[in-house]
Specification:
The protein is globular and about 75 Å long. It contains 17 helices and eleven strands. By secondary structure, the protein is an alpha/beta fold. It folds into two domains: 218 residues, P-loop containing nucleotide triphosphate hydrolases (Rossmann fold, 3-Layer(aba) Sandwich), CATH 3.40.50; 131 residues, Orthogonal Bundle (Helicase, Ruva Protein, domain 3), CATH 1.10.8.
């Protein structure tokens, strides 16, 4: 361990925030938890993969890189089916896993709703069994949230000491050799972002008040996510960008892939929230996905008609959320089956969300595109038009 002054001192064992404790796993009644972290929700699959994993594992990794890929993309292990967590280009997943084997951090970039946070959570769960070491980036994120802060009552009473130190998630990940997730890093002010540079390049964190450095154990790394379209984005400095391998997660380009993603996640959400209504029929999911893709592209699927796109980000995540809300409406205020009127109730708010001028864009789409699509779309058009 490097030292900054005086005699070398051991890394402290802070009184609180132990990196090896996962609060969700110690809850007395797991059924009462609204959402379990990935390592709890998919504990059985992770255990099966670990049991049959014969490939070499990097130090501090729970699974080999090949097993991590199987966990993320799905597959068959012995007689057990591993469900896919991410639907997309397998090569991107391989690049992401490969990056975490090196001394470079991983940056997942893409438009909102491209499963950046979802992928980062499952990568952390598979690699180190702990996806709860998270820094949530906002405009108000401070350097203390990245490095460490102090218990000021103890600080005033006893002065600087390991007991008074409050470690950040990054601090705890370095001490335990785990993956830490940095969500929405581009929302953090640039000068705060740059406090990561020394951590990522030297794999050390200085604690000058106590006269020592924290050295990262093998297995430590950072997975950051960044949106490309949201407001309030801060550019990352070139010095910080050089410490990351950048992986761009694309918006699904074809209807079939996006329909598959939406149906899978909607079914999971319905089960998790215990909504009485069954998932929506595939035909209705396909219609919503087609609407979203056409409004995103600015043209109809067949390319014959130009469409004015709205300012809203019509992401896959928005479609999933829309159907979750529709299932709730159908369960408690409908006939128990998701229909066009349930989906239309939330669709207007999804499209006309960020700018009132999108109201005209949505009406133009309804009249010039949806209305002209014949009997298959008539009920859906009328349900949408009634709410405009």
């Amino acid at each position: 361990m490097a030292k900054s002054s005086g005699k070398a001192k051991p890394n402290p064992a802070p009184a609180s925030g132990s990196p090896t404790t996962t609060a969700s796993t110690s809850e007395p009644n797991r059924d009462s938890i609204l959402r379990h972290p990935a390592e709890v929700q998919y504990a059985q699959e992770l255990a099966i993969l670990a049991q049959h994993d014969t490939n070499p594992k990097p130090e501090s990794w729970n699974l080999s890189p090949q097993a991590v890929k199987t966990y993320i993309l799905g597959g068959k292990v012995a007689d057990h089916e591993i469900t896919p967590k991410y639907v997309g280009n397998p090569r991107l997943v391989e690049i992401a896993i490969g990056t975490l084997l090196t001394d470079r951090a991983l940056l997942l970039v893409g438009e909102p709703g491209t499963a950046k946070s979802w992928l980062s959570e499952h990568l952390a769960a598979a690699i180190c069994g702990d996806s709860l070491l998270v820094v949530q980036g906002t405009a108000g994120t401070t350097e203390e949230q990245i490095r460490y802060s102090w218990n000021y009552a103890l600080l005033l009473a006893e002065g600087p000491s390991p007991k008074a130190l409050v470690p950040s998630p990054i601090y705890r990940a370095m001490m335990s050799g785990k993956i830490v997730r940095f969500e929405e890093i581009s929302r953090v002010p640039s000068e705060i972002q740059d406090s990561l540079i020394t951590i990522l390049s030297e794999k050390m964190l200085a604690v000058p008040e106590l006269g020592f450095h924290v050295s990262a154990k093998r297995g430590f790394n950072v997975i950051a996510t960044a949106n490309t379209r949201d407001r309030g984005v801060n550019e990352m400095s070139s010095a910080l960008m050089r410490r990351f391998n950048r992986v761009q997660l694309p918006v699904p380009s074809d209807i079939e892939t996006e329909v598959k993603i939406v149906r899978k996640r909607v079914a999971e959400i319905g089960t998790n929230l215990r909504l009485p209504a069954p998932p929506p029929p595939e035909e209705l999911v396909r219609k919503i996905v087609q609407i979203f893709q056409e409004l995103r592209r600015g043209q109809t699927i067949d390319g014959r008609q130009k469409i004015k796109p709205p300012s809203s980000v019509l992401s896959t995540a928005e479609a999933i959320s829309l159907f979750g809300n529709s299932m709730a409406l159908a369960s408690h205020f409908g006939n128990g089956q998701v229909c066009e009127s349930d989906v239309a109730a939330g669709l207007h708010g999804v499209v006309v969300k960020e700018d009132d001028r999108d109201q005209a864009v949505w009406i133009e789409y309804l009249e010039n595109v949806m209305k002209k699509r014949g009997t298959e779309w008539r009920d859906f058009y009328q349900a949408c038009r009634e709410l405009v």
